[in-house]
Structure formats: C-alpha cells, structure tokens
Design brief:
about 40% helix, globular, alpha+beta
Length: about 250
C-alpha cells in the first residue's frame, strides 16, 4: 500500500464535486485547504479536515417531526505511520436544525455520529502503553454521540436537563447510551466523504458516481485502503486486530 498519492486523489475528488451544486460547497472548502492538507500529509502522514460542509440529509424519517435541517459539517483526522499502516481513521458528522413549534417556541437541534479508532490501537501503533477497556472496542467502529454532542447537551436551555426546569407534568424523551460500537471499515478522507454523501443524499451520490472524475478517486482509495484491509481479515490475527475481544475464530 502506498498512500503518497492521497492528496492528489483528494484534489481530483474535490474538483469533480465542483460540477454539482449540491457538493459545490464541499469542494470549495476542500480546495481552499488543499495546500495545507498536502503539506501535512507529505511531512507527517497526517491529514485533518475541519468543519467541511456536506449535502444535507434528505427530509425523510426525521425526528422530531416537522423539524428543518440547516447545516451538516464533516471533520476528520487520518494518520498513518512510516510503514503506511493506519494509526487513526476518525471522522465525525454534526447535523444542525431547528423546530419552530409555535409562537415563542423555537428549539435548536443537533445530531452527531462518528466512526472512531480504538485508542488502544492508536497507543499500540505509537509505541505507548495500551490498556484494554471493559467494553469491547473494535479497532474501527461506528458510534453515536461524541465530545461535540456532550458539549451541546451541557449548553444553556438544553432539554431534558436538570439545569432546565420544565415545570410540573409528565414528559417523554429519547435516551442514548454510549453503545453500540459497530465494527467498521477504515476510511481515508475520500472514502469518508463519499460514504457520507451516499447516506445523506442518494440521488446526488448516484449521479456523481456515474462520472468517472468522481468515481475513479473513490476506486483508487478503495484499492489502497479497503482491499488490503479486507484481505487481512482472512487471517486470524487480522480478525483479532479488527474485532478485538469480540473475535473468537
């Protein structure tokens, strides 16, 4: 696996997204920081993307009912070592919206989900002390929430919260735990952005995928990242590394 061409792939990918209005803002943000991405990658094998705008999720099965989505932001940290092994592949999605529920009633809304790398794996790759957690943490995993969600939930007027009295009555609300951590493939920035567009706006994604200038960088990243990873899962050590304590075969 050689990841030297990653900045070139990301640059071509961004150029391809300029051709559609739904992904133009994504492309502009990437192109504006491409020089920084390239320099960081070639020097330190790290690439950090911060608050990149993405196409909004379609208005389908949204909660709460009658809400409106305003914005979607993508952030990512992708690190490799000198042997081209993936050290960290983390990306986070933050979707913001609102619910106008009546005169004088305006509710700000946020949704957060992410793909994370187990810190135990990161520490091992960096030669640091690694300590297994009590819960099973796959090497790369999907999980809801994150630090940005915790910050939002601690903000003023967040409900339900002991800091925001609702008055007398009986109320209902959704609950969220820190699990599950669902095993995931690793992603580089090209694969992660393509995946998010595919989840949020299938029509835009399918139309983009029909164009070779968009599809080819994705294919190259899949060959560089996913193919060796999936081939490694044929061996017990590869499965053990990916699934952690979940793997028994």
């Amino acid at each position: 696996m050689s990841l030297d061409p990653l900045p070139d792939r990301l640059s071509k990918f961004a150029d391809a997204m300029m051709s559609r209005p739904e992904t133009e803002a994504t492309a502009s943000a990437l192109i504006g920081s491409m020089q920084q991405y390239r320099a960081s990658w070639l020097k330190n094998r790290t690439m950090k993307l911060v608050r990149i705008p993405l196409p909004l999720p379609r208005n389908k099965a949204l909660h709460p009912v009658h809400m409106e989505i305003e914005n979607c932001q993508f952030s990512m940290e992708f690190d490799c070592n000198s042997n081209e092994e993936i050290v960290r592949s983390d990306f986070q999605l933050k979707v913001t919206g609102y619910l106008d529920s009546g005169p004088g009633e305006f509710i700000e809304l946020e949704d957060h989900w992410r793909v994370d790398t187990d810190e135990n794996h990161v520490n091992k790759m960096k030669g640091k002390e690694a300590k297994e957690s009590w819960e099973a943490h796959p090497q790369f995993h999907f999980q809801r929430g994150g630090h940005a969600q915790v910050e939002f939930a601690r903000s003023q007027n967040f409900v339900p919260s002991k800091m925001t009295p609702l008055g007398s009555g009986s109320w209902r609300a959704l609950m969220q735990t820190s699990s599950p951590r669902i095993p995931s493939l690793p992603f580089d920035p090209v694969l992660a952005i393509d995946f998010c567009i595919a989840q949020h706006d299938g029509r835009t994604w399918q139309a983009s995928r029909r164009k070779p200038e968009y599809r080819v960088p994705v294919e190259h990243s899949q060959r560089e990242i996913w193919h060796p990873f999936l081939m490694g899962l044929q061996e017990k050590d590869g499965r053990k590394q990916w699934l952690g304590p979940l793997a028994t075969f």
